[in-house]
Amino acid sequence: MFEALSDRFNTFFNRLRGRGRITEANITEVMKEVRTALLEADVHVEVADRFIENVVTKAIGAEVMNTLHPEQVMVKIVHDELVQLMGPVDSRIPFVSSPPTIILMAGLQGSGKTTTCAKLARYCQGKGKKPLLVAADLKRPAAIDQLEILGQQLGVPVHAERDHQNPVRVCRNGVEQARKILADVVILDTAGRLAIDEELMQEVAKVAQTVQPHQIYLVIDAMTGHDAVNTAKSFNERLELDGVILTKFDSDTRGGAVLSVKQISGKPIKFIGVGEKLDRLEEFHPDRIAGRILGMGDIVSLVEKAQSAQSAAEAAELQRKMEKGQLTLDDFIGQMDKMLKGSSMKELLKMIPGMGRMMGEMDLGIDDADIRRMRAIVESMTPRERKDPRIIDGSRRRRIARGSGAAPDDVSGLVKQFLQARDVTKAMAGMSMRDRMRSLTQFANTAAAGGKIGKIKESTTKKAFRHQRDRRKDRKRRSR
Amino acid sequence: MGLFDRFKSALSKTRDKVASGLGLLGLRKKIDESVLAELEHTLLAADVGPAMTAKMLEDVRGAWTGGEIQETTDIVPFLKRKVASNWPAEDRELKMAPSGPSVLLIAGINGSGKTTSVAKLARRLQSQGKKVILGACDTFRAAAIEQLSVWAKRCDVPLVRHKDGADPGAVAYEACDAAVSRGLDVVLIDTAGRLHTQDNLMRELGKIQRVVNKRIPGAPHEVLLVLDATIGQNAIRQAEMFRTHVNVTGIILAKLDGSAKGGVVVGIREMLGVPVKFIGVGEGLDDLEPFDPAAFVDALFATG
After folding, report:
1. Which chain A residues touch B143 with a CB distance below 8 Å?
2. Average pLDDT over residues B61-69
3. CB–CB contact A40 B230 (8 Å)
4. A181 touches B: beta carbon within 8 Å
5. What is the pLDDT of residue A352?
6. Is A143 on the interface with B (CB under 8 A)?
7. Do A3-86 and A311-479 come out as alike in CATH topology?
8. Average pLDDT over residues B219-241
9. Which residues of A touch B150 (CB under 8 A)?
C-alpha cells in the first residue's frame, strides 16, 4: 500500500533538495507529475486537482522559495494537506448509555461486509462489550452460514431467521433478541447492493427506519476506483452514514480511495481492514496514514501494537528482565510472536521511520518462514539452554541442530544474534522513550546500510547452503 | 427477452440516470481545448487511468488536427472504432479442448464475484448443450462451498466438494477425474479469493493449474480472471501478478450493472493483451453476457 505514492513524493522532495532556489514554475511542473501519481493511485480526479492547487498555493504563500530547506517546508505542507484530505475523524464507536448500540453495515457486493461485521464484533469484545451479530443478508447463498461460522469462531451469538426473506423483520427481531440477552452492541449484516438499485436501496432505508441504528457504516473495498466516491455519495443520500470502513487495506492498492472518500462524500473513514484474520481491523488515523504515505513511518501504531500485545504485568516483567540483561530465548521468541500476531515482519518494519523508504531497494530477507525456523531451533533447546544460551557447546549445538532440522551454524548464529539483541535492549531499557526512538531509528539506518538486519538472514537461512570460504569472508567483513 | 435487449437493459441502468447522456460531449459543437479537458476528466472518472487516458486524448487530438473529426459528437464514434479495433471478435470465444473435457479455472481476488460467475458460466454452457461439472476449490472462506453448492443445485449440475480446509489441488484433480470418467464436457473450477500480494496463495493457484494439467493434458484451457468493475488502476497490477502464476487467458468483468465503468480493462488489453470475455450484469443466473466493445465505450461516456 502506498509504495507508489511514497516513491513519487520522495523523488519530488529530493528534487527540491537538489536545487538551491525554487521557482513557482518548477514547483508547478513537478506537481504535475504528482498529479499523475495520484491519478494512477485512483485518487478521484477532482480531489487530485484540488490537492495540487492547495499545495501550490500554500507553497507560494509560505515562501518556500526563500527558505534554506525548501523540501522540509514542502514535506510539512504536503503532510498537512494529506491529513486535511482524510480528517478529522473520531474512529471510536460512540456506545450509547442505554444498550444495545445498534450498528448497521451496508455496502456493495463483495466489499467485505460479512467479514467486517465479525471483525467489528471482535473489536467490540476487545472494548469489553458483548456483541450480537444479525444475519440480514438473505440474498447471497450461504451468507447466513458464513456469519454463523464466524460468530462461532469468536464466541459471539448470531441471530438468524432462515424461514423467510424479509430483512426488516430479521433486523427488528435481532434488536429485540439483543435486548433479551443483554447484548451491548448489535451489528446488522445486510446484503450487498448497488447504489443504483432502487428497490434494494429502499429496502435498506426501511431497515434503518425501523430499527433506528445509532451508527451506519458503509463498507468499501480499498481497491475501488473512481466509483468509490459515487457509492459513498449515493449511500449517504439514502442512509445518513456515520462513517466508512475501508477493507482490503493490506493489498498493494495505491490507496486512492483513502484520500478521496472524505472529500467527495463528506464522510470520514473510521476503520480499516488490514488482513483476513478476524483481529485485523484497525482504527483509522489520518496523520499516521499521511506519515506512511510520505514514508515517515508510523511509530505510534507500532508502539500501540506492542502495547496491545501484552498486559501491563507482562510488560513490567519484561522491562525488569531487560534492565538486568536476563532476557531468555523464550522471551525473545514470545515477543516476536506477539508483535507479529498475524502481520508479517515486513509490515511491521515498515512502521519504523526511515525504513519504509529503504524497503523498496533492499530485500530484508526476514520472512515468516525464517521466524518459524528460529522458533524450531529454540524449541529444540532445553529450558536451561534457553535461559542461558552461553552454555551451548559443540555437542549441544549438534543436538539442537538435529532436533530442529537446521545447520549447526544456524544455531550459533541465532545465539549470537540473541546475545547482541539482549545487550541492545539492556542499554535501551534505561533510556527515555525519546532516546529509545532515536536509537531505534539509528538501528534502522545501520540496518539499511547493510548491517545488522541482513545478518539475521545470513545466520538463519542461506548460510547453510553457502560455501565455507564465502562464510569466512563474510565473517571477516562483518568484524571489520 | 433477446440477448441484445438484456445487454441494453443492463447498461441502461447506468444510462437512465443521465437524461441526455454524454454531457458536454453530447452537445454538437466544434472541438476545442475545453472539450478535450472535459474528455480527459470523463475518461479518468471512468477509471481508464492516466496513461491510457493520455493515449486516447492523443488519438483524438491527432484525428482532430488531422481533420478526421471536427465536432464533439464525432468523438465517441471515433473512440468506439478505435477501441473496437483493439478487441477482435475471436477474443471473446472460449477455447475448448478438441476432444474430452475442457477445464476452465476461475480466479480472482476476494469478493470480486468468482463464485457467482462460476454459476453463471455453468448455466450459460449448460444452455449451449454442454455437460458441466463444478469443482469447489474455495476451501478457505467460511461457507464458500455451501454457496457454490446452492448454485449447483439451482443449475442442476454436479459438484465435487471436500471439507473446509481441504487441499484445493485435490478437489480440482477429483473434479477432472470425474469429468473424464463420466464423459462430461466442461469442468469449472472455483478457487478461493486471494490477494495477488499473497505469494503463498498465488503459488497454490499455480499448483492447481499444474494438478489439472496432470490429469487432463492441455488443461486448463481457459484461466479466467474475475475483476470487479468498481476496481481502479490496481486491476492492472492484479492481472500482472496473476499472470506470473497462472496463464490468464481472459477476464470476466463482474458487477458492471452498477455505476462503475471498469475503464481499466482498456489499459489491460493494451498493456497485457488480456481480453475481456464476459461481463456480469446482475445477480441472476442469466446475467452473464459476452463482452461488446462498442456498447462498452458507449457506457464509458454515460455520466452516472
Report:
1. 142-143, 145-146, 149
2. 91
3. no
4. no
5. 58
6. yes
7. no
8. 90
9. 141-142
Residue with grid cell 504563500, as numbered in its chain: A61
Least confidently predicted of A230-244, A354-368, B102-116: A354-368
Out of B14, B45, B255, the one facing A226 most closely (by C-beta) is B45
Contact A227 B230 (CB under 8 A): yes
- Kindly state whether B234 is in contact with chain A, defined as any CB-CB distance less than 8 angstroms: yes
User: Which pLDDT score is estimated for A182?
Assistant: 94
Q: Residue A175 pLDDT > 70, yes or no?
A: yes
The residue behind cell 507500532 is A302
**Grid cell 459476452 — which residue?**
B290
- To test the contact with chain B by mutation, choose from A1, A199, A221 the residue with the greatest count of B C-beta atoms within 10 A, namely A221
Mean residue pLDDT of chain A comes to 78
pLDDT higher than threshold 70 for residue B188: yes
Measured between CB atoms, does A399 come within 8 Å of chain B?
no
Distances (CA, A) of A471 to A327, A340, A363: 29, 30, 20
Distance CA A375, CA B253 (A): 44
CB nearest to A149's CB, from B142, B196, B231 = B142
Q: Which residue of B has its CA nearest to A147?
A: B142
Name the grid cell of B162: 471436500
The CATH superfamily holding the domain A3-86 is: SRP54, nucleotide-binding domain (1.20.120.140)
Q: Which tens digit of pLDDT belongs to each residue from A159-169?
A: 999 988 999 99
For residue A109, give the nearest of B13, B237, B255 by CB distance: B255
Q: Residue A394 burial by CB count (10 A; 0-12/13-18/19+): exposed, middle or buried?
A: exposed
Q: Work out the pLDDT band at B25, boundaries 50, 70, 90.
A: low
* Whole-number Å distance between alpha carbons of B119 and A10: 46
Percent of chain B with pLDDT over 90: 46
B220 close contact with A: CB closer than 8 A: no
> Which of A146, A231, A254 shows the shortest C-beta gap to B234?
A254
Name the residue ranges covered by the structural domains of chain A: 3-86, 101-296, 311-479
Letter string b/e over residues A136-171, b meaning 16 or more CB atoms within 10 A of that residue's CB: bbbbbbbbbbbbbbbbeebebbbbbbeeeeebbebb
For A101-296, CATH number?
3.40.50.300
- Is residue B15 within 8 angstroms of chain A, CB to CB? no
Tens digits of residue pLDDT in A26-56: 777 778 888 888 888 888 888 899 999 988 8
Strand, helix or coil at A466?
coil
| Distance set, CA A234 to CA A231, A237, A238, A241 (Å) | 5, 5, 7, 10
Q: Which three cell numbers stand for residue A367?
A: 520472512
The full DSSP string for A40-77 is: HTT--HHHHHHHHHHHHHHHHHTTGGGSS-HHHHHHHH
Confirm or reject contact between B47 and chain A (CB < 8 A).
yes
Q: Is some CB atom of chain A closer than 8 A to the CB atom of B81?
A: no
The highest-level CATH class for domain A311-479 is mainly alpha
Cut 0.90: pTM above it: no
Q: What is the predicted pLDDT for the residue at A372?
A: 77
Tell me the DSSP string of A449-464: TTSHHHHHHHHHTGGG
Contact with chain B for residue A154, Cβ under 8 A: no
What are the φ and ψ backbone dihedral angles of B210, each rounded to 5 degrees? -65, -40
- Could you tell me if B9 lies within 8 Å of chain A, comparing CB atoms? no
